User: What shape does this take?
Amino acid sequence: MGKNLKAKKVSESQTEMSQLMMPQDANPFGFVHGGSIMSIADKVAYVCASRHSLKMCTTASVDSVSFRSPIKVGQLVNFLASVNYVGRTSMEVGIKILSEDLHTGKTTHTNSCYFTFVAIDGKGKPSPVPPLTLETSLHEKRHKRAEERRKFRLAQRNKKG
Ligand SMILES: CC(C)(COP(=O)(O)OP(=O)(O)OC[C@H]1O[C@@H](n2cnc3c(N)ncnc32)[C@H](O)[C@@H]1OP(=O)(O)O)[C@@H](O)C(=O)NCCC(=O)NCCS
Assistant: This one.
């Protein structure tokens, strides 16, 4: 991590975005494509990583994703993004995705997923990011889990060569 860079709090980069699901996001039966959701999630996570690093960022990996319940056209989808962990040049951003039925007010946690972004310089080379200041016990819990996921990812990367 960028030891000379000033640490930033988790709350300084937390990002929320909501999007109404439209017919172009869905199949002919009105169920939203997982790819539509992941495309928006990638953008929200990008904003969060950019707010933390104030640098250009690129998606290095996305952890496996599963959807617990369907999202339908006409529902609002809320994306909540937070930096969980920073390395020297990389950041894990966790996204919680909630669907909201605008007629009943009921919200459903459809899934959570984890993006790793790497801050890059003008030549596309990894560039240091500010350390992360954890503010709550929830941040600490997420940080610990993110550290375990990072170990797993790096092991997978080394296995593939
Ligand atoms: C991401 C990228 C910049 C990393 O470059 P690299 O030369 O492999 O970088 P390094 O090996 O020096 O690793 C730099 C950081 O990236 C992390 N990283 C690299 N590959 C990773 C992966 N697959 N998953 C998670 N983190 C990864 C490393 O852990 C390291 O983090 P740290 O500095 O916090 O310890 C490079 O692989 C790249 O440009 N990839 C294409 C990204 C892209 O185009 N994304 C959009 C797809 S459409």
User: Anything to note?
Assistant: Residues 8-160 form a domain with the Thiol Ester Dehydrase; Chain A fold (CATH 3.10.129.10). Helices lie at 34-53, 137-160. The chain has a mean pLDDT of 95. The CA atoms of residues 52 and 85 lie 11 Å apart.
